[in-house]
Amino acid sequence: MEHLSMDTAAKIEWSGWSRCESSFSMLLVPHRPGVLALAEEITESNPILGTGKRLLALFFVTEARDLSLAVSGLFAPGSPLREKLVLSRCFLRYALI
User: Fold this and answer.
1) DSSP state of 14
2) From the CA atom positions of the chain, what is the Rg in Å?
3) Which residue among 21, 38, 55, 72 has its CA within the 20 to 30 Å range from the CA of 27?
């Protein structure tokens, strides 16, 4: 049996949040394995003060062998998430694994 070891001190570093406007806005996502997360911007309103707080609501997390191809696939015509990405203010971040 193969001996597997895991470095428990390894720290996963996430990218910053990037706005998902089209697949072209995601051209800098690397062709490397990793994890990606999608979130939608929502506002939490305070009726007493009449102000709102901007929040991101996480709605999708997945692993990918190639982050760049996975992100491009989100905007493909057959993707179940395509409409949400086009119609909402959505953001993406990723971590290389």
Assistant:
1) B
2) 17
3) 55
Alpha-carbon gap, residue 15 to 59, rounded angstroms: 17
Residue boundaries of the structural domains of the chain = 18-96
This model's pTM is above 0.85: no
Closest CA to 96 of 63, 73, 69: 63
- Return d(Cα 91, Cα 20) in angstroms, integer: 5
- The span from the CA of 20 to the CA of 74, in Å, is 10
Q: Do strands 34-46 and 90-96 pair parallel, antiparallel, or not at all (unpaired)?
A: antiparallel
CATH number of 18-96: 3.40.1440
Listing DSSP states for 39-79 in one string gives: EEEEEEEETTTTEEEEEEEEEEEEEESSHHHHHHHHTSTT-
